[in-house]
Amino acid sequence: MTDESGPKGDPVAASGGHRAVFLSYASEDAEVAARICNTLREAGIEVWFDQNELRGGAAWDAAIRRQIRTCALFVPVISRNSRARVEGYFRLEWKLAVDRSQMMAAEKPFLLPAVIDGTSEIDARVPDKFHEVQWMWLRGGEAPLAFVERVSHLLTLVEDVPAAAAGSLGRAPHGGPIRASPELARYGVWPAGAAAQSAAPAQGAASEKSIAVLPFVDMSQNKDQEYFTDGLTEELIGLLTRVPGLRIPARTSCFYFKGKQATIAEIAQALNVAHVLEGSVRKSGNTIRIAVQLIRVETGYQLWSQTHDRTLVDIFKVQDEIAASVVQSLSATLLSAPPPGRTASLDSDAYQLYLRGHFHWNRRSPEEFRKAVRFFEQAIARDPNYALAFTGLADCYSLLPIYDRTARATETMPQAKTAILRALAIDDDLSQAHASLGLILEIFDFDWTGAEREYQRAVELSPNSPVPHQWYGELLVNTGRFDEGLAEGRLAVELDPLSQVANLALGIQLNSARRYTEAIGQLQKTLELGRTFADTNYLLFEAYANKGMYSEAVAAYARQKALDGVPASEVAAFHDAFAKDSWPGFLKARIQSLEAQGPAAADELASLYARLGDLDSAFAWLEKCYADRSARLTHLKVDARYDSLRADPRFADLLRRVGLGS
Fold first, then answer.
1. Which of 331, 446, 454, 469 could crosslink 438 through cysteines, CB 3.0-4.6 Å?
2. Which of these, 501, 434, 423, lies nearest to 462 by C-alpha position?
3. Is-contact 44 150, C-beta < 8 A?
4. Which of 155, 93, 102 is nearest to 126 (CA)?
5. For the residues 179-195, what does the mean pLDDT come to?
């Protein structure tokens, strides 16, 4: 922990700490920590490392506290030993480091946990703050090149933070520096928990005809207009997407950087674009000021900037003006067509309500869906011909039973279908509505032909929208057309590379296509984009189990259940059952736990019984799935979980009823 020790064990004065790494560990891990220390020092990195067995005294305590206050990076070494020790000096060091991190700006990387054995992130007994950053795994204390490079990179970022905060982006044509606006300055550097490099897809040079629209920033006094700024950003993405020849990353990928700190160059690299559009909104009463600037990434040049002062009545006109300005700025050498005009006029108040609903819908949770429903219904009451509001309402009802096991598809899906048919009656050229109808036809009506027709129409109307490609890809894979389906799934990821939904869907498709190694890699990539996203660990469990990697499967399952809030004792019981009776023991333990929850877990129970070889119980739970119109039945034809059932006549009958058999 200290740089070196004197003959009496006193800490020797080190540098000011601007590039020093503080290594904190349990005494049982001293040998391993020493190897990590030596590897970093050989790379020219200064390490504060205490090699004394005994610690104590006011002078020593003060020295340790001073070094934690001044080091550049704090690396806690996590292991079975640290987990077992409920008390220890290292725990005080961890607390001091967390306390210091609480006072740091978001763009300053500081904590870098390092695991030296198989200790799980879930039950490692570490401060909650450690879970907010990305961990490194150093088995046996062998620090790979990637770890050394990570530390070196973070130390560089620490030095660069003041410059990034100043907002220098490049040189203006007249030779003076261009300063980023306060909004753009928030993209300073990646924090320790973000994976900029891993997020960036493998790709060639960015096309000149490409631009990313970053989430606009709410600069209003009360900071209560996030729904409006998000909606404005999405509208601009939608308008620019319709420009022939212009590549625009989809909404989810652009919004991936919201709340994160990254340089414009890193954002552009991750999204593979040559230009970035950013801006801010100040709203006061019925008056808004929208400031926008277009940046050329390679040079940092500000191609243009504009400020619009309008009333909310003029919001649609302002959106069109901004989109036209972007195209005009690029059109001299890159583009030849203006953005298409709007096809319908909208009531300003209805639009505000729609934006509020869409804001909650994007948060993707049962509670947020229900909030969104209320706003969409208010928008429809204000404007009964608002097709997008009906589409939003339908999407809430369609996805609610997928995200909420207590919601019944037999109750929500008819409401979804009524809403989406109304949307299409108003505007039959609305791509989102055709895609939404396709989803309803597939997962509730089991009308595969009708669903495919709707997906194809959605793709035709909006070929650069990722969602129709994703959903169409899922249909193709579920009907056994793997190559076609995976091509659609990969295209969805290409159009929206940082979308957790699109990446997760591709992982599911690869698993259904029985490309387990690829599926595992894809799902691990999804975890890098967001460790707590949806059921990613559960789907990783399925892929591991399908490949026969049962130890890894149980570990992934336990991670998911811990994230779901399952008590630690129950999670530990899964591990114990597997250790005692291997894979069958785990399956039985999980079945016992789930059956106490009732029919809400019907699909999972059916699959666990099928894996265990209890065919009668598996079919009994599958019948419950069919009665409830479970969306997971759409995977039945290709789902490896049910391979043990395929020779049974009952399986052929079930396939026929869900439209996947003759």
1. 454
2. 434
3. no
4. 93
5. 32
